[in-house]
Amino acid sequence: MPYYIGDSDLEKHLLxxxxxxxxxxMSLVSNEMEVVFINKAACDMLGLPIEVLEENxxxxxxxxxxxxxxxYGPGDPEKLVQEVLETARQFNPxxxxxxxxxxxxxxxxxxxxxxxxxxxxxxxxxxxxxxEANLEATQYELEMKLEHSLDEVNYHRDLLVxxxxxxxxxxxxxxxxxxxxxxxxxxxxxxxxxKRHLVQNSHIDCIEGFSIPESQRSEDDATNLFSSSEHKxxxxxxxxINQSPTVNGGRIAIFSDVSVYKDQTHKLQDHxxxxxxxxxxxxxxxxxxxxxxxxxxxxxxTPLAIIDSNAQRIQRKIGEIPNERLRERIGNIxxxxxxxxxxINRFMDFSTDEITGLKVEAKRQPFRGALEKLCxxxxxxxxxxxxxxxxxxxxxxAHFDQNMLDQCVSNILSNAIKYSEPMAPITVTGxxxxxxxxxxxxxxxxxxxxxxxxxxxxKYYRASxxxxxxxxxxxxxxxxxxxxxxxxxxxxxxxxxKGSCFTIFLPAKLAIDDQxxxxxxxxxxx
Length: 526
Fold this sequence. Notes:
Layout: H1 8-21, E1 25-30, E2 35-38, H2 40-46, H3 50-55, H4 59-68, H5 77-89, E3 94-99, E4 105-112, E5 117-124, H6 126-166, E6 170-174, E7 180-183, H7 185-190, H8 194-200, E8 227-232, E9 238-245, E10 251-257, H9 266-299, H10 301-316, H11 323-347, E11 363-366, H12 368-381, E12 387-390, E13 397-400, H13 402-418, E14 426-432, E15 436-442, H14 475-485, E16 489-495, E17 499-507, E18 511-512
Parallel strand pairs: 12-14
Antiparallel strand pairs: 1-2, 1-5, 3-4, 4-5, 6-7, 6-10, 8-9, 9-10, 11-13, 13-18, 14-15, 15-17, 16-17
């Protein structure tokens, strides 16, 4: 292979320099099972003195030395040596992890060179495994908090139902589309058909014999959201019907029998209204806490991983990294911090069990470059990622909310990495048609069963093929919601064992063709 070396003296010592300066351990074994070379990093990881190799460079001698010191675990050292040696003679690619006697975990990746021998790369992944264990513990803690929040929600729901059944008034609740949500026992006694319509979640117009009379309002009271009126119903009793809106755009109606105590029920009515409002407020608070814990456990992973990966690279290359590259990595950290601040502010505004009320802050900004930067960020987060992208067909600028789109694409990219084997190719491509700007993310991961395809965008739903892989089941749901706010949508094609392809569709009208050619997209990672 051609190469350029400007200093002829350097060429004489290049191999030695590379072997000593590499952070990873490297060794080369010939087809005659002799160690041709091994660098210091590999010797340090294996606890292998150079003198042992100088005494006898055969692989069998090296393996026996390591086996006698417990590197291969308990058992007959000679038997262990022969098993490892037999595997080596097969010249097959192998990747294994082994815990050393001192507690360190070493990953060994063996690559055959035909039948000329094989190269082995040694990596100390102790910190990585410790980080993963800590992350798993944090995930478990978050899940416990989520479970506790769910218990609180159920408790307050039961409290609300019991409180509603305890009052003497009839109480009925409709959602924002006027579908029946809840009716207490008193209301069901007044309208027996409500019990059946509760199960069917019927529209108010479909409930036979039931209606909420229009309230009488004066011009001065036209903006008041609370209404009250009195009517004689089918049981020949007079009822005061109080209506008020719920936090999600629905309404609550309270039917108070005032036939006998018309003048004495004002205080009780006010008390009931206040009780319902307080209970609604308590439920809303519990829902907000649950939503925050669930979303935070998922959405904070990507910016935290970007911050961590950039910080590690800066730490490893202190004094060596160029100022331009240092500014870029610090910029990545600041972008991730700003994204987390955006997420926190957005989560604190949530008050229902749906991601509603998102405020789109769309503006003219780089589109293709933002997507390429996302690919680079995910590529830099792990050494076992293999992301390839081709987004040249997309416009350089568009009118969109970058925070929302970043989270949407990040969720899909993170899933592709998480559910794929290490170094399995993940392709990100762009296409522009008359109707859409399309972004495809394709992987070769575990795939999704066809019977579950219609459910994967439901909140908290996880495919059966994700068993054993940490996750919350909300990333795709959020992606769908964010795209909906941009008048877009998402489609998926998948086959179990072969991978998945998620395609994001954004309206072509978002593209801006008066491109600023001075803003060039990022294309590579140094």
